[in-house]
Amino acid sequence: MHTVEPKVFLIGETRIVEEGLKEYLAHIGVPDWMSDAPTDAERLVEVMGRLCYRSFKPGLNSNVTKVREHNADYLANILSVKHGSVIEHPVMNFVFADVSRVFTHELVRHRPGVAISQESLRFVRLDDLGQWLPTVIREDPEAVEIFARTFEDLERLQQELAQHFQLDAPGTPFERKKIVTSAIRRLAPDGLATTIGWSANPRTIRWVLEMRTHKSAEEEIRLVFGKVGALVVARYPHLFGDFTVEMADGLPSYKPKNSKI
Ligand SMILES: Cc1cc2nc3c(=O)[nH]c(=O)nc-3n(C[C@H](O)[C@H](O)[C@H](O)COP(=O)(O)OP(=O)(O)OC[C@H]3O[C@@H](n4cnc5c(N)ncnc54)[C@H](O)[C@@H]3O)c2cc1C
């Protein structure tokens, strides 16, 4: 048994294919169009938005006589008029590590605009359980001791059952290991540390950030999405810059000017 702290890693993000964008801009007659977007994600949203009205420059569409010049203004307008579908184009790829199954079960309730890969407890044997303690437990030495003892007992059960089924005997087929590992995980705690890969578009991230850092949400998901909030606001200022942060019970709560776009 070991103690852990939930961690957030941003491991990927959408990239523009420069040659393709150049060819498209030439095709519609604005080969010199440039954006001052700080990231490819924000530039991509701008391109996808502008193509709707041909608003790359005045006159490209005879109905359009002026256009917003800067990526910041352009995206701020998209957010304020709630053209949420335009910000679905980019994707950000996260790994949430040392999070509990309490957290992952809450996370997967958010359905649109996500891709999920979760550590398989059919395949991964639980012979060393990781534990993160919520504040109410951490502040109570007796509760900490009960948690530690119970985790150790449950870990020992996993090891005993693995021995009982002789999973480490030479020649035990992988299929057999899988069946037993999957069966005995039923005796593992919901709070065990595990890993989930979560990719989402900014429309979804904005919504989950708002919902799951609210002070009424569960402490672990608040902790994790507090970290997500700090990352995305710093990295994609024009997609997340309308969020303000307040501290509530020691954790950040992210509130957008434009809710649920
Ligand atoms: C504080 C808190 C407490 C909670 N307590 C419980 C609980 O006790 N029990 C429980 O079961 N769940 C609970 N939940 C989960 C909650 O009910 C939602 O399932 C979860 O937050 C997903 O959010 P969402 O409904 O906005 O859907 P998401 O999947 O995040 O979808 C985002 C938005 O897309 C739209 N959308 C998505 N799917 C559809 C659809 N099929 N049809 C129409 N529109 C759609 C909706 O506008 C939705 O808000 C809780 C959540 C929070 C934040």
From TrEMBL:
**InterPro entries assigned to the protein according to its UniProt record, in alphabetical order:** Thymidylate_synthase_ThyX, Thymidylate_synthase_ThyX_sf
GO MF term list? flavin adenine dinucleotide binding; NADPH binding; thymidylate synthase (FAD) activity; thymidylate synthase activity
Q: Which GO terms describe its biological process?
A: dTMP biosynthetic process
Name of protein: Thymidylate synthase
Q: Which organism is it from?
A: Terrybacteria sp. (strain RIFCSPHIGHO2_01_FULL_58_15)
